[in-house]
Amino acid sequence: MSGPDFGAPAPGSQPPSATSAPQGAEPSAGSLPAYPAAAPSDPRTAQQALALRDLTKTFGDKVAVDHVNLDVPAGSFFGLVGPNGAGKTTTLSMVSGLLVPTAGRIFVDGVDVWADPAAAKARMGVLPEGLRLFERLSGAELLSYLGRLRGLPADVVNQRATSLLDVLDLSDAGDKLVADYSTGMRKKITLAAALLHSPPLLLLDEPLEAVDPVSARTIRTVLTQYRQAGGTVIFSSHVMALVEELCTHVAVMAAGRIVAAGELATVRGSAASLDDAFFHLVGGQERHTEGLSWLQSR
Ligand SMILES: Nc1ncnc2c1ncn2[C@@H]1O[C@H](COP(=O)(O)OP(=O)(O)OP(=O)(O)O)[C@@H](O)[C@H]1O
């Protein structure tokens, strides 16, 4: 198996540093650390792969993302977690340029996403929720098209596409139409497209959902290698064990707000696991299941 060529280290890559992310959040529960109240750092420095400032999105009366401030250190593996409907996808969609913010600013590698979208998008690879692909292209054609669209020379695209298809176990499906791909295969070909131009930042919405365990292991290795080469990975997930395994940093969202963010160990605090910390931070409650007693009546 040949490894993907991630090219030169990402511009502005730095070792992870403490994440400051001031926010008027509710106090954290129990023995967990209080949410950091540091002053916002300069969003244009090279130390921040991503900086959000007062980022807000409303849909009618619904405030999906509520004045979010967040700094993602360059070189970090950053997990974005939160209950269903917390605002993770809405946040990532605004960062990737798919959704117009109602208010606030977003800086990728110091570039204002909505002031200079082309420059910002050149710095990102995106695996969005609700994948929309060119269904009538084969996987290989899709990568070739997207690589050329990114301005890469044809021979570089071909070489990288071949490596990525091989590593992600899609070589045999390279000539198959994307329309005929399974859910997991679609996720993998989109991840390949996100990696193709070796961007300094990867934004991945639930990257391992629907991916088989062998491919999931490969993707974890690829992402770890990418980060070791200087890249920054931001991904949303509901799988706390995965976040604990991979992430250097984590942000917990609830009801459109960041309720905790920072280095993984700091956010976990004295809780036994990130899962326990998450439960307390988002005000989780055990559900009473007596009403389902009919399930045992057979
Ligand atoms: N296009 C839309 N129109 C109206 N409301 C929306 C729209 N998109 C998202 N929302 C609402 O915004 C809130 C945040 O949704 P979002 O998809 O960002 O949450 P999430 O944290 O990604 O959830 P999940 O973990 O379930 O994927 C939800 O209440 C959702 O119903």
From TrEMBL:
Q: Which GO terms describe its biological process?
A: response to antibiotic
Q: Which residues form the ABC transporter domain?
A: 50-280
Quick one: where's region Disordered? 1-46
Q: Which GO terms describe its molecular function?
A: ATP binding; ATP hydrolysis activity
Q: Which Pfam family, an example, fits this chain?
A: ABC_tran
Name the Gene3D superfamilies for this protein. P-loop containing nucleotide triphosphate hydrolases
Q: What is its main location?
A: membrane
Q: Which GO terms describe its cellular component?
A: plasma membrane
Q: Does the keyword DNA damage apply?
A: no
- PROSITE patterns per record: ABC_TRANSPORTER_2
The way it spans or sits in the membrane comes to: Peripheral membrane protein
Q: Where is the composition biased (Low complexity)?
A: 7-25
Instruction: From the Swiss-Prot or TrEMBL record, state where the protein is found.
Output: Cell membrane
**What is the name of this protein?**
ABC transporter ATP-binding protein
